[in-house]
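Structure first, sequence second, as always.
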C-alpha cells in the first residue's frame, strides 16, 4: 500500500486521529499528523468512561479494539458498580459495566497511550489549514476534536450545544464504582456524575444541554450545589484540586462522513452521543474506519452507518429525557434497581439504546401533541 503514492494528512492528534494513524501504519502507510497544540492530550486532565450499554453490540470495548484492530489501551479501572440517584430513589447495578479512563495531559491518558503507539511524524503547534493540506496530500482526515471545521464546510447538523463543568477533588473513593445523579432540582435537563481517578481522586461533574429557549442559569452555582450533594452522600468533605469547564460544545453529526478524499472523524463526524455526552469509543472507531477506507479494504460510509443510527437513537432518548420530571426519573431508577432492570443493563444481548429509543418515539410524539 505504501507504494501507491498515497499521502495522508491527519488534522488532530486526538483519539480518532491517532487511531487512524495506527491503523494506516499496519498497512504500510505513514501519515503526517498535524496538531495545533504543543503535545497530544494538551488539555486539562479529566476522567471519562466507556459504558458498555452505550457500545452494543460490543460488550468489552477495550478487548474489542485490541483483538480486532491492534489498538491497545489500558484504562485506570473497570467499572463493577453503577449507582443511580434520582430525587427519591437510589439503585445499584453490578457487573462488568465498562471502564474508567483518563483524558488530557496525564501520561496515562488515552491520547498519550495512543501517541506512544504511533510511528508517524506528529507536527505540533501546527498552523496549517485544511485548505493548505488538501493541496499537498492525497487524503485529509479531519480529526480536530471539535466540529468547527465541519460546520465551516457546511457539512454538520448541530442539534444543540452542551456544557461540562466539573471539579477534580481529593477524598476516599472506590475506583470501581461510578455514581450518576438525575434530578432536575440539581441539574435541570442534565445530569451529574462522579468518576474516580484513583482511590484518592475523582471527578465530580455536571453535564447539561443548552438551548436558546432555556433561561440563563448560574452553572457554577449548580456545580457547587452538586458538590454538596455528593459530599453529603459519601459523608466526606472534599478538597478541590482543579476546576475545568467546556462551554457551548456543539453536539451534532456530519451530513456526509466523506467528501471527496476528505474524511470526517471523531467529533467532526459526530461521535458524542446526545443522550449522555460520551463518545470515545465511536471516535476511535471512526479513525479506524477512515483508515480502512483509505487502504481500500472497506467503505467509510458503510462502516459508519451503524454509528449514525446509534447517534439518531441517542438523540431520541435525549429528547425524551428533557421531558422527564423527577417522578419519571424516580420510576427509571426504581426500574433499574429491579432484577429485570439489572438484567437489561448488564446483558450482552440487548441493544438497550436502540430498544429504548424505539419505545420512546411514540411517547415523544404524544407529548408533542399534548403540548
Amino acid at each position: 500500500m505504501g507504494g501507491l503514492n498515497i499521502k495522508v494528512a491527519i488534522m488532530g492528534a486526538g483519539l480518532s486521529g491517532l487511531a487512524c494513524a495506527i491503523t494506516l501504519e499496519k498497512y504500510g502507510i505513514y501519515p503526517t499528523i498535524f496538531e495545533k497544540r504543543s503535545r497530544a492530550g494538551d488539555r486539562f486532565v479529566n476522567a471519562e468512561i466507556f459504558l458498555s450499554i452505550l457500545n452494543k453490540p460490543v460488550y468489552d470495548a477495550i478487548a474489542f479494539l485490541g483483538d480486532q484492530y491492534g489498538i491497545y489501551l489500558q484504562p485506570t479501572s473497570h467499572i463493577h458498580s453503577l449507582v443511580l440517584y434520582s430525587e427519591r430513589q437510589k439503585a445499584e447495578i453490578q457487573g462488568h459495566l465498562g471502564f474508567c479512563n483518563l483524558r488530557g495531559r496525564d501520561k496515562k491518558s488515552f491520547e498519550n497511550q495512543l501517541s506512544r503507539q504511533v510511528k508517524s511524524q506528529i507536527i505540533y503547534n501546527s498552523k496549517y489549514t485544511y485548505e493548505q493540506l488538501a493541496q499537498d496530500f492525497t487524503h485529509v482526515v479531519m480529526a480536530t476534536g471539535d466540529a468547527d471545521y465541519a460546520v465551516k464546510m457546511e457539512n454538520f447538523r448541530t442539534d444543540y450545544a452542551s456544557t461540562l463543568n466539573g471539579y477534580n477533588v481529593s477524598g476516599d473513593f472506590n475506583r470501581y464504582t461510578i455514581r450518576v445523579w438525575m434530578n432536575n432540582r440539581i441539574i435541570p435537563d442534565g445530569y451529574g456524575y462522579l468518576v474516580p481517578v484513583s482511590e484518592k481522586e475523582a471527578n465530580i461533574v455536571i453535564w447539561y444541554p443548552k438551548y436558546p429557549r432555556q433561561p440563563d442559569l448560574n452553572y457554577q452555582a449548580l456545580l457547587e450545589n452538586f458538590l454538596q450533594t455528593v459530599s453529603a452522600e459519601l459523608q466526606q468533605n472534599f478538597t478541590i484540586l482543579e476546576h475545568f469547564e467546556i462551554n457551548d460544545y456543539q453536539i451534532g453529526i456530519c451530513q456526509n462522513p466523506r467528501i471527496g478524499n476528505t474524511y470526517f472523524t471523531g467529533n467532526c463526524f459526530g461521535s458524542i452521543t446526545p443522550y449522555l455526552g460520551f463518545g470515545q469509543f465511536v471516535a476511535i472507531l471512526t479513525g479506524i474506519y477512515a483508515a480502512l477506507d483509505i487502504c481500500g479494504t472497506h467503505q467509510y460510509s458503510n462502516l459508519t452507518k451503524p454509528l449514525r443510527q446509534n447517534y439518531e437513537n441517542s438523540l431520541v432518548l435525549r429528547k425524551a429525557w428533557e421531558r422527564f420530571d423527577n417522578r419519571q426519573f424516580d420510576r427509571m431508577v426504581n426500574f433499574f434497581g429491579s432484577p429485570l432492570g439489572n438484567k437489561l443493563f448488564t446483558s450482552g444481548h440487548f441493544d438497550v439504546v436502540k430498544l429504548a429509543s424505539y419505545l420512546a418515539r411514540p411517547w415523544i410524539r404524544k407529548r408533542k401533541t399534548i403540548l
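Margin note: The longest strand covers residues 239-254.
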